[in-house]
Design brief:
about 500 residues, about 55% helix, 20 helices, 2 domains, 4 strands, 4-stranded mixed beta sheet
Length: about 500
């Protein structure tokens, strides 16, 4: 990353601070991040910092790099997301920077810098960004960096330097050990570049680059596996990350998609329609081939598996290609007015910002934490059951007493048995439960509450609905912004119920 003009990177960095602060609930502007996934990551990061072994003493099925990052964030703060907020600023800056470099491959117009800012604004204000602290968000700058170098080769025959190729490989390794299905981007890209290199007699140059990329991936992999080898938990890593994700984490009944034979076909149809702009754009065949290989294969992977709608945040990697349609445009006052109106509309439909300003942002977990924190006795242990991670561990500074401290989107009898045993044991003073959107999972993991526990907190609050449950909601989630369909479809929100039971 070379900075020939210090004013541009400084401006983009300050803009990254602005958009991250406004739209990510990890920022100081928000009282908490209410997303269960983000709280799971932070709880595990806190547990690892306290000496617990990942996948052995505490469990989730994502890759170890994600939790190591949250362990580092926990060093800065155990009861807030300030560490993740700082990482998000860096990621937002890198995404906009490489988006800017990509646009300048196709245009010398001064429109590229304001367009890079607009793309950053739209990305973080999008419904697909959700609350912040997603795997997809952290993958964006890595994919943007890789796409830039791929496009340089496809368009200008420029081969990355050795260090650039190694950095690309390290990025691929970080993604591999975070969420390996995102590697479809690399699979499609390398296949497309191989065809381009063959047509231009550059197979030897591409081969060297690919070997260096693999070397970078190997360095990252060696570092990750060494960590688990030192801790003696290599078997747990293989079982929890690879075996669970490949053989268990699937099933439309638990992940929210309808179990109809035609639903995958509908998604394939949407995939085909979304690919058409790449097919018909008047770009060089090398560029179109690369985009079909990366964009098309990644999108196809979403069409053939059960997904959450925030997975589609990855598609913003390709947003810099919009410069192709205004590559000869000279910025004018009207340009900035239109960009400002688009940005305002995006912010005005952003769920996080709107609910914060309206005073309807979900924060009952803070009330729950206040009740538990008021108890100064030594036995004020907390246990969540039949529930996602509400954030109660983070805000009470407690660690989960059990390995499977939240329910996942898979119906696992081992998790059900462990949680039921802990509830029945009476070892903890407070039982915390959230009843949210996926009723199937809550019913499966439900456990009878012993008679000596009494409910001391019961509240419902509006919560953002994020799952693809019906075809019309699937289309709703793909629409940006949601306001375009609000007059023909119902907004997708639900009430979630928050409860505390205290042992008498």
């Amino acid at each position: 990353m070379k900075f020939t003009n210090c004013r541009e990177p400084l401006f983009l960095f300050l803009f990254a601070v602005l958009i991250t602060t406004l739209f990510s609930t990890c920022s100081f502007l928000y009282p908490l991040n209410p997303w269960d996934d983000a709280n799971v990551y932070m709880t595990i990061g806190n547990a690892m910092l306290s000496g617990k072994d990942l996948y052995v003493d505490i469990f989730d099925h994502k890759g170890p790099v994600l939790y190591l990052m949250h362990e580092m964030a926990a060093v800065l703060s155990r009861n807030s997301f300030v560490g993740i907020y700082l990482i998000e600023i860096i990621c937002s800056f890198c995404f906009m920077w490489y988006s800017l470099q990509t646009m300048r491959l196709f245009s010398a117009s001064k429109v590229t810098l304001p367009l890079a800012c607009l793309l950053g604004w739209l990305t973080l204000s999008s419904d697909l960004f959700y609350y912040g602290d997603s795997v997809e968000e952290f993958s964006l700058p890595i994919l943007a960096h890789c796409l830039y170098h791929m496009l340089r080769f496809a368009r200008n025959r420029q081969v990355p330097s050795r260090w650039q190729a190694l950095v690309m490989g390290v990025g691929m390794g970080l993604i591999f050990w975070t969420k390996f299905n995102i590697l479809f981007f690399y699979v499609g890209g390398i296949a497309a570049l191989a065809f381009i290199a063959w047509r231009h007699s550059q197979m030897k140059e591409l081969g060297r680059t690919v070997l260096l990329v693999i070397a970078g991936w190997a360095v990252t992999s060696a570092a990750v596996m060494s960590y688990f080898a030192v801790h003696g938990t290599m078997e747990a890593l293989m079982e929890s990350y690879f075996m669970v994700n490949i053989f268990q984490y699937h099933g439309t009944a638990t992940n929210g998609e309808p179990d109809f034979w035609w639903f995958p076909l509908m998604k394939l149809g949407i995939w085909a329609v979304l690919t058409l702009p790449v097919c018909f754009v008047r770009a060089r065949w090398e560029v179109k081939t690369l985009l079909l290989g990366t964009y098309g294969v990644l999108l196809l992977s979403f069409a053939t598996m059960t997904v959450q709608f925030y997975y589609f945040l990855l598609m913003y990697t390709f947003s810099p290609m919009l410069v192709y349609f205004c590559r000869n445009h000279k910025p004018s006052p009207r340009t900035y007015i239109i960009a400002g109106l688009v940005g305002f509309a995006a912010a005005a439909t952003n769920w996080n910002l709107v609910t914060l300003l309206n005073g309807t942002f979900p924060k009952s977990v803070l009330e729950m934490a206040e009740i538990i924190n008021a108890d100064k006795s030594e036995d004020s242990e907390v246990l969540t059951f039949s529930s996602y991670d509400t954030g109660i561990y983070q805000h009470t500074r407690h660690l989960p007493p059990n390995k499977n401290f939240f329910i996942s989107s898979i119906l696992d009898p081992e998790i059900k048995k462990e949680q039921a045993e802990w509830v029945a044991s009476g070892k903890v003073k407070y039982l915390v439960r959230e009843i949210g959107a996926i009723v199937t999972c809550h019913e499966y993991y439900d456990a009878p509450i012993p008679d000596n526990y009494h409910c001391i907190y019961d509240k419902e609050e509006l919560f953002r609905y994020r799952l693809i449950t019906t075809p019309h909601k699937f289309l709703w989630n793909l629409t940006y912004p949601r306001v375009l369909l609000q007059y023909v479809m119902e907004p997708v929100t639900v009430n979630q119920r928050m409860l505390i039971y205290k042992r008498e």
